[in-house]
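Researcher: Here's a chain I'd like modeled. Treat it as a single chain, no partners, no ligands.
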Amino acid sequence: MNPKKILAMILVYGLCGIAANLAHPVTPTLFNMHGFGSKVFGYAFSMMSFANFAFSYLWSNLYRKYYAKFIVLLCCISYAIAQILFINAHTTASLLLARFLAGAFVSGLLIGIPFYMIQYVSKEERSSIITKVATAFSFGGTLGYFLGGLIGNTNIYIPLYTQVIVLLVCGISFFFIMEKNKITSSQESIKSKTIITHGQYIALALTFLVWVSSTSLTQTYAFYLINILKVKPVINGITKGVVGLIALLLNLFVTIRLLKSSQKEKYFKVYLAIVATMYCILLLNFRFDLGFIISGIVIMSLETMHLPILQSICVSYNKNESKTEIISMQNAARSCAMIIGAYISGIAFEFNVKAPFVIATISFIIAFILSLRLREDIH
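Model: Modeled as a single isolated chain. Structure tokens:
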């Protein structure tokens, strides 16, 4: 694949990130309009994450057997249909079904695009590609959150249906950009057994813990702003827009350099310590609305860095050419964490509005402690 197509793939993947988050700023309002509480919000997010987790391994196998461009097109179209069902869901059962379908098909995108990109670059370029792909999706997501809040301030259904249109555009764009190839691995057989190293076990556990924390924060933060602080969806969107801008700068000027370092595990531990400290500061700012909002923005901006770093660490610990299984496992660990994080935070929010943030803080502190077991001598 030539560099222009690689760039086009990254840009369209960023557009997918925009689409994925366009509805998020107005989702709490939609839930309130349909009579769903924060507990159902947690159930819905958990259902989507469960489907993401359950279908991860299936998609990794399908991508080897069938042409990737057709699967990606199917995922985009099906995700769009699932969102239409979500918009028009008026019962808990129909809502959970829509979320399950959305999670199943968005999983295919999250796995397929990184898989596809990795096989077209050299070993030396893999970390850079992983970072660029993750950054594009993360920045697109925060930009989508900002636009969704801005547009949703006028009519909440505009960002919801815009999301459907953008997903269809992404599917068509991927179909024409991608080559008619299956996703393969140069030295692995589908029948071979993947060997997971000690370092990868630690990295997968860290993925789980930081995503429990991240999900508990992000899924409750919007509800807290709207239902407790009584801010409008546009303010919620603006906060995510600021997060997106900071995240872009961090990933372009910090994360990429960090991934090229031979001591990235050491720097990752420092990163975890900083974020854990910010979580503690967040808990101290409940009495100060502005301090709470700013602390949340800083944490969510910093947390956009951990996905590409953890992916790179997992790949670095790999002894063979098998990259697909470990990324699939990492996606499964992330999805499982999102299930638990959303479910626990939804119930905890009903019990005490501050409880989800305490859970997020504890989970991140545990992640920092566990990271101390990462070896720094693998390079």
